[in-house]
Amino acid sequence: MIILHVVESFSTGTLQALRGLCWATEGAVTCHILHGSRNEGACARPEGFPRTVSFLPWPAVREIAPRSDYQAIRVLQETVARLRPDRIHAHSSKAGALVRLAFPKGQVPLLYSPHGYSFLRRDVSSMARFFYWSIERLLGYVPHVTVACGIAEYARACLVSRRAVYIPNMMDLTVLDTALLSSRRSSHRSSGGSGELWVGTAGGIRPQKNFPLFCAVAKAFEGSHVRFVWVGGGEIPTSVSVPNNLEVTGWLDHASTLSRLAACDVYMQTSLWEGLSLAVLEGMALGLPILATPAPGNAELVIDGHNGYLCQSVEDFVARLAAFVETPSLPAQFGAASRRMIEQGFTIQQVAPRWLSLYRDYARYSHHG
């Protein structure tokens, strides 16, 4: 079976989810990836995929641009005519729209993974969000199956798509455990002393991830033994002052990202909106407690008082971190609960069979969801 993955936002979380999916289905399907490029640093390069995967450049852009979009649709149609895939799997909103516009009658079986709908964005106006919602609602009539990565995303998919299924993001614990073994005695822990608490996050510095809030929390602990690391890169807003207890690493490869996170004591997610964050899942798999904003995707992964807390404000984050400092056994206790949650429902062994079932039995899913 041949699967053509189509993705414009070939970076960060979408790239990571697609890489995991290719590994999960290796040997059972042949994967080709038609991809755009946002030039978001080292993580935008197609590294770490199975050798059997082929990569094809695609002239798609994030913005709505009629001339570029028309060209992208033509390249997509020509690629499909040449490769003759059994399934087309679109990833993220722009690719999902262009694929459905290219094949409005479902001439080829179509799947669409939003990885966080565009109409959830909080960096655009309410009118823009309504426009994005309207596009999804209209294209929802095109024959296809929407694959939601989280429960909240599935609920929204049911409102804008005729057929939707829920398959959660998955973790390869072998990779995560390798990072744990190599990093638990890293320089952060061995040289910082037992009194330090390291708080980490991973992602690009962009509106979704709310870098200003992360900085505000870090600033509240300047001069203390609480230190922060932002694993990722991007343009720091000119209005934001980065406190001296916060390190911004810049873009790192996936193994290095996991290594830095594994050396932390707490994972802190300040995002404004999410689908189901792979970075949070990785923090949980690394045995870290989670402090996160109550964005729908985050709320699915954090059980207050069990594996972390949902925090509405700077004051909430500061109070929870202060409690971790005062009770040093608490992070490890919550982190163990995080790890158990991953083991109970998000491993590659549990999730991969669901993807293979969807690919093989597409007709059943397209009729019944």
Describe what you observe in this structure:
By secondary structure, this protein is of the alpha/beta class. It folds into 2 domains: 2-169 and 348-368, Glycogen Phosphorylase B (Rossmann fold), CATH 3.40.50.2000; 173-343, 3-Layer(aba) Sandwich (Rossmann fold). The chain contains 15 helices and 13 strands. It has a 7-stranded parallel beta sheet, sandwiched between helices. A 6-stranded parallel beta sheet has the order 10-9-8-11-12-13, sandwiched between helices. Strand 1, helix 1 (12-24) and strand 2 form a beta-alpha-beta unit. Helix 6 crosses helix 9 and helix 8 (211-219) crosses helix 12 (314-326). The radius of gyration is 21 Å and the shape is globular. Mean pLDDT is 92; it is low at 41-45 and 185-193.
Task: Provide a brief overview of the structure.
This protein is of the alpha/beta class. It contains 15 helices and 13 strands. It has a 7-stranded parallel sheet, with helices on both faces.
